[in-house]
Design a protein that fits this description.
Strand content: 35-45%
Radius of gyration: 35 Å
Helix content: 10-25%
Largest sheet: 17 strands, antiparallel
Low-confidence stretches: 1-5, 369-374, 379-386, 389-400, 541-545
Structural class: alpha+beta
Distance between the termini: 29 Å
Number of helices: 17
């Protein structure tokens, strides 16, 4: 409250540094008569914008006003003086050192010595003082009303409306003072009358190039679903004479021009650009209609006959005549490359296009054996094989036939640092294939994603402009193959803070096959709550989850390789961009209640579908193998035994999890081209797991433990299926307002060899800084379980089913941002848990959702975001019905806790108390 009052007091002085007779621009306001327009877009073109505000408070202007400029200047001069003094001392020290060096060299009769140079501090752009950072980096100077820019804003609005088809609009504006006193504020008010709007109602395509006209009218209009929605109308009009009316909009027509140009380049018209498309709009005032002419022009290129002349050539369908890879490196060259080159070619070593020349050549092709008919009527199956020929063109001397679509020539020095088949598999501009511009971009991205090169420069050479043939050259400089790194980091696991560090060894090209190999050793400390709120003697565990009470360390070995291992990459379709991830890891964790060792192996195939989707599948039968070994403290084991809780015993016991199959689907429209809007971003993730079924096939020969569960390798294994989803949407209203939505739904069904609940590592949690911010991390639920009445409760609650949603309005820009949020959700158990009544999922699940409302601040330090959120529970499902809402009577709750002892009641937190959350990054 004191902070809010202080901010309001400072807010009253936002005009502190507004000069006498000048005015602070408080806001821009539009009043529109006529058609509805995009007012946010119209405001953005105004030449003066008011100071940035967050939740109606101009924090950055306040920060600017807090620091007096004369004090900031004095601090700057003091720092500059200190820098000059330090530089003088460093210069004197440098002189003394070099004087001694000269004297020693002279005494030895040596005329040379190594001069010592001490780096001086920067006096031109010295580091800013704290005052300067607050005032000039974070702060924002007051926006003073400028009558000239005010007039320009009216002109800009008029131009904006003309571009939108309003040729008969009027724009007037006034400046309204706000408040009283010598230093006033002003609202700039703009009054817009749109008038009637022009509409496009007919189309004429003009071109003397039949190939271009056919490509646009027959292929582009019919097959391309442009995000502007023009094509359907244009195609129906040209083919069927169907009338249409599209609002005239210059910005959309410019965007459409770029879409058409891109489509023409993708249809093999090399050299086509938006400059080859012109518009002509013929208006009819009586009907407010426009006949739009789309005019396609020829290419203008350099003359092959006259050096300084330009000629025009017609656009022509283009094919790829040759593909070359230039590996510009000498790492694998044996000997002195410079001397070898100059001796062999008789010329000084020079670079071509900034790259080293190459001296070795290799021709690569993918070959296939023709299908052969046998006397018995059977046919031999087709198979693929790679073949390379060093310094030799033509077919290999065997029965294999050439596949002309997968050929490339490699230029290198000494030895190819990577297998040629891997590089050729990234190339989409294949020999004899039509040129497509998006294949050019796709190949560059695929080469980049290999992570093998520090420089990638694709180049297309058209020897004769307009000939319809091009050569494709890729100039590649290999990156450093091996590296080491050390990464300290601060962690935040749903509100539990920690510190950790990781040492990594990376090899980007193991076996010359592009295998990205990483060997890591990580360790750290983290704050984790104890399993129980109380010790076995009934004493409350103090400061649970706030001290670094958990230590963990473990090595990891990971291979990320191209293709579907062990299938050869040349046998797979290029577009899928297949990858294989093989990994193994061990993690040792020591907590107050137990120590745990986890050994895990993963075998995953990944498939990229277009620009938006990734499908990951665990290799059947061996997707994930995880062994969890748990060593409990005597007190913890005694506590579990006394409770005789099968669910708790299952969660904290040795586990063998053998996933038979795993399927993960990821969607993200960030890079989508068609029907993509910059305002809306969508992400979706779905994961399916099935475990224990392979091991269960042999249960007739397996031993059982004391609870009757079957064992493999001496450990009871888990058997379950699980499905989990997460959907996130971001909608940008403007630069300073974003609406973010997240929904989560998941269910795990334990069965067979797992009669109680999911393994701990696969269970769901609720509450915390990245979940429901009105509840302490991992304490919400399950269901309507009244945790406060259970003196044997655990501090961490887990479940088999999860439902959750979060809605967040993010405000502001720059360093300080804020957010209003609402979180809803809970977890449930799939089976009845007698020790947690009300935890099982039922038809009344919607009555058991916990809801929290809150407000938060986000401090953007560029390299990370610090988040501070306060969430207040508005519904608490743990309370009795009739007392779950914050505005309802607490009497049913009080009636329950009055049966407890005074000591037990003291340990219960207020059910609707606010929760303060600290996080790193956004919650989603």
């Amino acid at each position: 409250m004191l902070l809010i009052v202080a901010l309001l007091l400072v807010q009253c002085k936002v005009t502190k540094y507004v000069p006498e007779g000048k005015y602070l621009l408080k806001d821009n306001k539009l009043k529109v008569s006529g058609d509805k327009i995009d007012e946010e877009a119209a405001k953005e073109i105004l030449r003066q914008q008011p100071n940035i505000s967050t939740a109606s408070i101009k924090f950055r202007l306040i920060a600017y006003n807090m620091i007096r400029p004369e004090k900031a200047e004095k601090a700057r001069l003091r720092r500059l003086k200190n820098i000059h003094e330090k530089n003088a001392k460093r210069k004197a020290k440098e002189t003394r050192i070099n004087t001694r060096k000269i004297a020693r060299a002279t005494a030895k009769g040596d005329s040379t010595y190594y001069k010592r140079t001490i780096q001086l501090k920067d006096t031109v752009t010295p580091r800013l003082t704290i005052r300067e950072r607050i005032k000039y980096k974070f702060g924002e100077a007051p926006v003073i009303v400028d009558s000239f820019l005010f007039g320009k804003s009216q002109e800009q609005l008029n131009i904006y409306l003309n571009k939108k088809g309003y040729f008969y609009d009027t724009v007037t504006a006034v400046l309204d003072t706000v408040g009283s006193g010598k230093k006033q504020k002003i609202n700039a008010r703009y009054f817009i009358t749109t008038g009637e709007r022009y509409f496009i109602d007919s189309l004429v395509v003009v071109s003397d190039n039949s190939l271009v006209k056919t490509s646009y009218s027959k292929r582009f209009l019919r097959k391309t679903n442009d995000k502007l929605g023009f094509n359907d109308h244009f195609y129906d009009f040209l083919e069927k004479g169907k009338p249409f009316r599209i609002p005239f909009d210059e910005d959309q027509l410019d965007a459409y021009r770029n879409i058409v140009a891109k489509a023409m380049k993708d249809d093999a018209f090399y050299g086509f650009s938006a400059q080859h498309i012109r518009y002509r709009a013929d208006t009819t005032r009586a009907t407010m209609s426009i006949t739009l002419k789309i005019i396609f022009t020829d290419r203008t290129v350099k003359s092959p006959f006259y050096k300084d002349s330009l000629i025009q050539v017609k656009h022509k369908s283009t094919v790829v005549s040759n593909v070359f890879f230039h590996i510009c490196d000498t790492t694998l060259f044996d000997g002195n490359f410079k001397a070898f080159y100059e001796n062999k070619f008789g010329e000084v070593l020079d670079t071509k296009n900034g790259f080293l020349p190459t001296v070795d050549t290799l021709h690569y092709a993918v070959l296939y054996r023709a299908v052969e008919n046998h006397d018995d009527g059977n046919k031999e199956a087709t198979f693929y094989k790679s073949a390379v020929e060093k310094n030799l063109f033509g077919k290999p001397k065997d029965s294999l036939e050439l596949n002309p679509l997968r050929m490339a020539t490699f230029h290198y020095n000494g030895e190819l640092f990577v297998k040629p088949g891997l590089l050729e598999a990234q190339n989409y501009l294949e020999y004899t294939n039509p040129y497509k511009d998006y294949y050019f971009d796709r190949t560059y991205n695929r080469l980049l994603q290999l992570g093998l090169f520090s420089v990638i420069k694709p180049e297309i050479i058209e020897e004769v402009p307009g000939s319809g043939e091009i050569e494709v050259h890729y100039y590649l400089v290999p990156a450093k193959k091996q590296s080491y790194s050390f990464q300290p980091r601060a962690t935040n696991s749903n509100g539990f803070l920690g510190v950790s560090a990781e040492v990594n060894y990376t090899n980007k090209n193991l076996f010359r096959a592009g295998w990205l190999t990483t060997v890591s050793l990580s360790g750290g400390f983290e704050s984790q709550p104890p399993v129980f709120d109380e010790t076995i003697d009934g004493q409350k565990v103090e400061k649970s989850g706030r001290s670094f009470n958990t230590f963990e360390i473990g090595p990891t070995l990971k291979f990320d390789l191209p293709g579907f291992f062990p299938i050869n990459i040349t046998k797979l379709p290029k577009r899928a961009r297949p990858r294989t991830v093989l990994s193994t890891a061990y993690n040792y964790q020591r907590r107050p209640d137990f120590t745990r060792g986890v050994f895990q192996m993963n075998f995953l195939w990944k498939l990229y579908v277009g620009k938006t989707q990734i499908i990951s599948a665990g290799v059947p039968l061996v997707s994930v193998i995880k062994f969890v070994g748990l060593t409990k403290t005597a007190a913890f084991e005694d506590r579990i035994n006394k409770l005789n809780d099968l669910f708790l015993r299952n969660a904290y016991s040795d586990q063998l999890i053998w996933e038979d199959f795993k399927l993960v689907y990821d969607y993200d429209n960030r890079d989508k081209d068609e029907k993509r809007t910059d305002k809306l971003r969508l992400t979706f993730n779905a994961t399916f797991n099935a475990a224990g079924n392979t091991l269960a096939l042999g249960k007739s020969k397996q031993q059982t433990d004391t609870t009757g569960r079957h064992m493999a390798f001496g450990v009871a294994y888990s058997q379950f299926v699980m499905f989990d989803t997460k959907f996130i949407a971001y909608y940008n209203f403007s630069r300073q307002r974003i609406l973010a939505l997240r929904t989560m739904a998941g269910i795990g069904v334990p069965y067979g060899n797992t009669p109680t609940s999911l393994p701990y590592d696969y269970s769901f949690f609720a509450g915390g800084a990245n979940d429901n911010r009105g509840f302490v991390a991992r304490t919400l639920g399950p269901g309507s379980y009244q945790y406060y009445m259970d003196t044997n409760r655990t501090a961490t609650q887990i479940g088999d089913i999860r439902l959750g949603a979060s809605l967040e309005l993010r405000l502001g820009s720059g360093f300080l941002k804020s957010a209003l949020f609402m979180d809803v959700g809970n977890i449930w158990t799939y089976n009845e848990d007698v020790n947690r009544p009300g935890s099982k999922f039922s038809s009344s699940w919607y009555k058991e959702l916990g809801m929290a409302l809150g407000y938060g601040l986000r401090f953007d330090f560029e390299f990370f975001i610090l988040r501070c959120d306060i969430g207040v529970p508005f519904t608490n499902p743990a309370l009795p019905e009739g007392a779950r809402w914050i505005f309802q009577s607490r009497q049913p709750y009080y009636d329950g806790i009055n049966t407890l002892t005074d000591e037990q009641r003291k340990k219960i937190s207020a059910p609707f108390g606010p929760r303060f959350n600290i996080g790193i990054g956004f919650p989603f």
